[in-house]
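F.,

This is the one I mentioned.
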């Protein structure tokens, strides 16, 4: 697989020494507190874009768990285009995420933006997220390469697959081999959607690398109503997991409300996704007692 395009200033194949499929042909399966990513299960990670308050996080966490999510997402350190937008609860958000894990038993994934945040984030999170804007931050990649937490490596919005693979190579090269990729959409000329979700990335990354591949249709589309359809597409093309933004009151969300699913719609989507997963020989976790009480929720 190393006969990929050459890159940069040297001739010859780009060495994906550690992330290349050859170094683990059967594929890597990550174990996150008993949840396996890269096996037959398609693992759904869900939760709010930003941690906003204890109530907001716990109510969303409880709802997504009842619908079958296996991992809770939530941003404490938020990269925002405008410095005047809500930029996260920071350390307080990390503490709330740890509390939500205690409450629900769901492992948590949250973003780290800066080398100075690696220590506190690793202390509180079960998976460390490298955001789209940070994929090219090589000192940060090397820092998470030295922590012993799994890393969710998001594709830079202007990054090629080769650059994404090499970003993961930085992490593995420092000794951390628990990495998964996340396709979250790239910038194209199309502006009807926030990004263009590049589902080509899934079979391509699975062929090129042994690491699991997650798809994030929330950032990939920017529209909550497109998320279920693109999640189905992602499962059909072989994604090992999904990252989905869910908010109990999307209109009031402090970030990414327009792309956040209401828990009732998330529950409906999960039921539909199980059918698609079965059709391609995968499964999506279904709680023994589906505790979701979505019927009373107003999702208008
Ligand atoms: C997020 O997951 O909320 C986020 C900021 O994602 P991205 O880095 O893909 O924009
Ligand atoms: Mn977001």
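My design for it:
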């Amino acid at each position: 697989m190393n006969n990929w395009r050459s890159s940069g200033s040297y001739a010859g194949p780009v060495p994906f020494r550690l992330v290349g499929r050859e170094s683990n042909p059967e594929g890597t399966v990550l174990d996150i507190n008993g949840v396996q990513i890269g096996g037959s299960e398609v693992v759904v990670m869900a939760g709010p874009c930003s941690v906003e308050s204890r109530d907001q996080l716990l109510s969303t966490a409880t709802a997504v768990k009842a619908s079958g999510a296996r991992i809770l997402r939530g941003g404490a350190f938020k990269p925002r285009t405008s410095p005047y937008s809500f930029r996260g609860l920071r350390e307080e958000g990390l503490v709330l995420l740890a509390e939500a894990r205690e409450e629900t038993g769901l492992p948590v994934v949250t973003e780290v933006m800066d080398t100075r945040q690696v220590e506190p984030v690793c202390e509180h999170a079960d998976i460390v997220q490298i955001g789209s804007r940070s994929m090219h931050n090589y000192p940060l990649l090397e820092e998470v390469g030295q922590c012993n937490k799994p890393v969710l490596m998001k594709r830079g919005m202007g990054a090629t697959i080769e650059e994404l693979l090499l970003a993961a190579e930085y992490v593995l090269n420092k000794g951390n081999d628990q990495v998964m990729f996340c396709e979250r959409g790239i910038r194209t000329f199309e502006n009807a959607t926030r990004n263009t979700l590049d589902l080509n990335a899934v079979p391509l990354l699975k062929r090129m690398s042994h690491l699991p591949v997650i798809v994030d249709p929330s950032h990939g589309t920017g529209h909550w109503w497109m998320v279920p359809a693109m999640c189905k597409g992602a499962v059909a093309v072989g994604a090992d997991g999904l990252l989905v933004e869910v908010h109990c009151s999307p209109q009031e969300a402090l970030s990414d409300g327009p792309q956040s699913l209401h828990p009732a719609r998330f529950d409906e989507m999960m039921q539909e996704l199980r059918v698609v997963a079965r059709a391609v020989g995968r499964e999506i976790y279904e709680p023994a007692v589906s505790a979701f009480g979505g019927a009373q929720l107003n999702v208008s």
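The mean pLDDT is 94.

Talk soon.
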